[in-house]
Amino acid sequence: MLYSINMFVDTATIELKAGKGGDGRSSFRHEKYRAMGGPDGGDGGRGGDVIIRVDHNLNTLVAYRNAQTIRAESGEGGGGNRSHGKNGLDQIVKVPQGTQVWEDDVLVVDLTGPKDESIIAKGGRGGFGNAHFKSSTRQAPRNAELGDPGEAHKLRLELKMVADVGLVGLPNAGKSTLLSVISNAKPEIAAYPFTTLVPNLGVVDVDEFGFLVADIPGLIEGASEGKGLGDEFLRHIERTAVLLHLVDPSSPDPAADYKVIQSELAHYEVDLSVKPQLIVITKSETVDAKTITAAAKAIKKIAGKTPIFIISAQAHVGLLEVLRAAAELVKAARAARERHIAETAIPVIETIDLPDFWRVVTEEDGIFRVIGERIEGFARRTNFEEDDGVRRLRDILAKTGVAREIRRQGAVDGDIIRIGDTELTWLS
Ligand SMILES: Nc1nc2c(ncn2[C@@H]2O[C@H](COP(=O)(O)OP(=O)(O)OP(=O)(O)O)[C@@H](O)[C@H]2O)c(=O)[nH]1
Ligand SMILES: [Mg+2]
């Protein structure tokens, strides 16, 4: 399998809307010899979730460049005879591995694994039908709840290329040329610096082992502070397991070139100079053997144990050796990553029961705000067009002690009670 991506989109903005919960139904059983049977209105169905999921066939976010709002299906309303409305279908957003999901400046989820997925917009809960509200004092409740709205979010997707191997080096070192001969990526190649302006990605196959190689624009001294094309491209190699550090032996001082790049890698947000690395002296057919030996020796003095390879991309010399060494490092890194994931995996707690906690604050003259997850949920789901719904909310306010607290804080008839987005008028 060989393919290439010469241009890629690595950010996208998407808008999501999960499905609304279906409304509960208010209905009564019809029985032959009774004027009116008991309440039998069924519950509304749950709204569908929007789920983001890694799909290994994807490498870019291009599908979301002009994305419309992505919606999940709403739940159906409840029916008579206690029949439950159908749940809305979930909607799946497929993204490449390595996609991060951001809302404003908050990282919502980081999809690093090959099968990662996460609910990014939760569907609304279906409203209870009136069959739920039968009690000895209320034989004929008419109220049914409205379904909760589904969550809506505007999110930014960010893909850091998850290449296994990154090619680094000064401009003109021969990075794009190497990528073009080891993969079928077709990057632009030219005899001047800064030919490469966007990273290129190619798949390399060596001994039936495939890995992704990223060629990034040339770095110069000060790149980590934004000089040249800046440090933006270092981001693309943040997650690569291995770096191939390319050095041109025909340069006046190859060891100094090596040092400049090492220092830029070290000064990036995270120290990239400590990544497993192979040094690759390029363009070997352009200089004599003595020049190459001298360059290798000088670099070895600084680089210590880091292995040094000598290649000519143009003459196809020494390529297999570098690729095999890189493949071994990639395998080791992948195995280490899997061990790490297994060791740090923690159980996920699915639902959290909210404590039944509330309080009342006086906001301004005559406005009392009731704060509390449960109570706000009840208010939101109350259908104010139904007397029974309003009565039930009033019962809840009385039973929980909220009404007493409002009175104690000095509410008089006509004052406004705010619960979430709901406003009520106080009548004692
Ligand atoms: N003779 C010879 N020339 C090479 C070899 N590899 C690269 N070159 C030449 O070196 C020049 C620069 O090569 P590129 O591959 O564009 O270098 P780069 O590192 O991608 O450069 P930037 O994208 O500017 O950072 C081009 O003229 C290539 O033809 C090689 O093995 N032999
Ligand atoms: Mg290039």
Characterization of the model:
The protein is an alpha/beta fold and 428 residues long. It folds into 3 domains: 10-159, GTP1/OBG domain (Spo0b-associated Gtp-binding Protein, Chain: A), CATH 2.70.210; 165-344, P-loop containing nucleotide triphosphate hydrolases (Rossmann fold); 359-425, GTP-binding protein OBG, C-terminal domain (GMP Synthetase, Chain A, domain 3). The chain is built from 7 helices and 19 strands. The chain has helices spanning 175-182, 254-266, 289-303, 319-344, 373-381, 387-400, 402-408, and strands at 4-5, 11-17, 50-54, 70-71, 91-95, 99-103, 106-111, 117-121, 152-159, 165-169, 200-206, 209-215, 242-247, 277-281, 308-310, 359-364, 367-371, 416-419, 422-425. The strands form 4 sheets. The chain has a 7-stranded mixed beta sheet with strand order 1-11-12-10-13-14-15, with helices on both faces. A 5-stranded mixed beta sheet has the order 4-2-9-6-7, with no helix packed on it. Helix 2 runs parallel beside helix 3 (289-303). The radius of gyration is 32 Å and the shape is elongated. The N and C termini lie far apart (76 Å). Residues 1-9 and 347-355 have low confidence and may be disordered. Magnesium ion is lined by residues 175-176, 195-196, 215.
